[in-house]
Amino acid sequence: MKLTYLGHSSFLVEEGKFKGVVDPFLSGNQASTTRPDDIKDLTHVFITHGHGDHIGDAVQLAKANDALVITNAEIADYLSSKGLRVHAMHIGGRFRFDFGTVKMTPALHGSGIKTEKGMVYGGNPGGFVIEVNGKKVYHAGDTGLTMDMKLLESEKIDVAMLPIGGNFTMDIDDAIIATDFIRPKILIPMHYGTFQVIEADPKEFKEKNKTCETVILEIGQGYDF
Length: 225
Ligand code: NI
Ligand code: MN
Hints:
Blueprint: E1 2-7, E2 10-15, E3 18-22, E4 44-46, H1 52-55, H2 58-65, E5 68-72, H3 73-80, E6 86-89, E7 94-96, E8 101-106, E9 113-115, E10 118-120, E11 126-132, E12 135-139, E13 159-163, H4 172-182, E14 186-190, H5 202-208, E15 213-214, E16 222-224
Parallel strand pairs: 3-4, 4-5, 5-6, 12-13, 13-14, 14-15
Antiparallel strand pairs: 1-2, 1-16, 2-3, 7-8, 8-11, 9-10, 11-12
Helix pairs in contact: 4-5
This protein binds nickel (II) ion and manganese (II) ion (MN).
Nickel (II) ion binds next to loops.
């Protein structure tokens, strides 16, 4: 499996013919080196919650690639009205797709979708456990630290992606506790540095994380496992 960091909370997840993107915030993120047009043969788009820095370029990407959007029921309903192919899930649910399994996990956050007509209800925010060919990744979405993360230990996660930027989500110290709860083999920090209020040093996280290996990805960099 290959993970490629596209900046903020966005990752490409590739394994065989499966090519998914999580939270594709690209054109709105000046730090991202990937434009939506650069991404070809995308099969799936995962959206953790309704905020603009997570829905991002999902509509354009899903349309251009005829990719299936996997997200919570409320966001799925909203995107379906825009003509996208959607698969609605919800917190705690797992489904077996043709490429592998996906489970939606809880996140402690908001999920409103900002539109020209005002805020649209985006259901509960979540995260994803995505398993393809026996490789398992956990993308937490935006969340504060919760005891629920202790339940993820039994999932035997290979690679977990956790926010560390604070203000809207866990900061470094809370992400250290979350890592201890989840016990993944590898931890990749995300959701830091994009905005002034979420400045955080991933090297500080790496120094403090005694639970597992920390992999810090530059924007555009890939990681194979
Ligand atoms: Ni958010
Ligand atoms: Mn966010």
